[in-house]
Amino acid sequence: MGTSGVDAIVGLIKSWQAGWTLAGELFAPKNYLAPSDVAVDRLGTLRALLGVGITALLLTRYAGPDWAEFFARDAALRIILSATVGFPVCLLAMAALLVCTKSGRRGDTARHLWQPLRTMGVGVLAIFALGTLLLIPCIGIFVVVAMAPFAVRAAFLITKHWFAAADGHLLLGPIVAVIVTWTVAVIDITDASPSALPYGFYLMLVLGGSVTITGLAVMEYRRAHRYYGVTFRGGSRPHLFR
């Protein structure tokens, strides 16, 4: 391998490292409201990994010579679907939290909710930019290779933290997770596409996964309430910092 080949590999590795780091900077919460909670972080990771696992199992419904093409296409579509559902759900959940908050703490809560709103804006710009680059002839394949670590980590962090929701309100993430998972579950159940999986198993997988994710979100809520005194009426600022 010549010097140019080595330089190309080194440059690719550096782009992967930079993309991985950038995704963390953009979509991981900065913990403005409360210190990082190891238990809550693990619950969020488990919830996100469970969603990824369910997605992988659901995609095994494709059988036949073209299974790889369908698998890749549907995986991308499910990520896009979750993100697409997540945008309006986050906005509605923010509005609901503001309505529930006591009037004296509503302004403070609104200021904090600007943090996940900003992250959502960054997410929209990132998706638009990547989508635009993928459509450019002769460039799309290079974008896929160079930006793969960024895209993978960004997708995982978005579904784990829901646009750094904890920087706006410690209860926002669990709320969004529950609504998104059940919305996607309804879409899956009503999907009339042919499946290689038995319908009973398919239904159990979708509903069982949604129930489990809901249970994990409830555990996140209870921990936030128990250790930080956060409630729907009390505003976004934990009692530790009031």
Would you write up a description of this structure?
With 242 residues, the chain is mostly helical. The chain has one domain (17-27, 39-237). It contains eight helices and no strands. The protein has helices spanning 3-27, 38-58, 67-100, 103-112, 114-135, 140-161, 172-189, 199-228. It is globular and about 65 Å long.
Q: What is the number of E strands?
A: 0
The mean pLDDT is 79
Q: CA-to-CA gap between the ends? A: 62 Å
What is the strand content? Answer: under 5%
Written as H for each helix and E for each strand, in order along the chain, the element string is: HHHHHHHH
Describe the global form.
globular
H/I helix tally = 8
Query: Into how many domains do the coordinates divide?
Result: 1
Instruction: Calculate Rg over CA atoms.
Output: 20 Å
Structural class, by secondary structure, is mainly alpha
List the helices and strands and how they pair.
Layout: H1 3-27, H2 38-58, H3 67-100, H4 103-112, H5 114-135, H6 140-161, H7 172-189, H8 199-228
Helix pairs in contact: 1-6, 2-6, 2-8, 3-7, 5-6, 7-8
